[in-house]
Design goal:
globular; four-stranded antiparallel beta sheet; 48% strand; 9 strands; mainly beta
Length: 115
């Protein structure tokens, strides 16, 4: 497989939705890259600063890269319930797993892929 593009969806306490573009490299033990204002690439930042109190409601990816999933981290600490399996989050799955992962304003979100 090749590197994949994904979309991370956050819903803020204000009701605003944030669609964050994500770049998933085609290798395990690599960090995801985030771009809230355009297409994410390998050169995009590997952390995302959360703009307001939010809940991660979805992450969708077109195809699974070599890694089987990713672990989400808040402020460098792993998030309980923050392990994502790419096979469960494919764009084509109508019933993909619904997420409810809370984040606080100013948190730094990062993610590392696993095999």
């Amino acid at each position: 497989m090749a590197a994949q593009q994904a979309t991370l969806t956050l819903v803020g306490k204000s009701g605003r939705s944030y669609a964050i573009d994500v770049h998933a490299p085609d290798a395990a033990n690599t960090q995801l890259c985030f771009n809230p204002s355009g297409a994410a690439a390998a050169t995009s930042p590997n952390t995302l600063r959360v703009p307001e109190d939010c809940v991660i409601t979805d992450i969708s990816i077109a195809a699974s890269p070599t890694a089987t999933g990713a672990v989400l981290y808040r402020n460098s600490g792993s998030i309980i319930g923050g392990a994502i399996r790419w096979a469960n989050q494919l764009d084509s799955l109508v019933n993909r797993q619904k997420l409810r992962i809370p984040l606080n304003a100013g948190d730094f979100l990062s993610a590392v892929q696993f095999t």
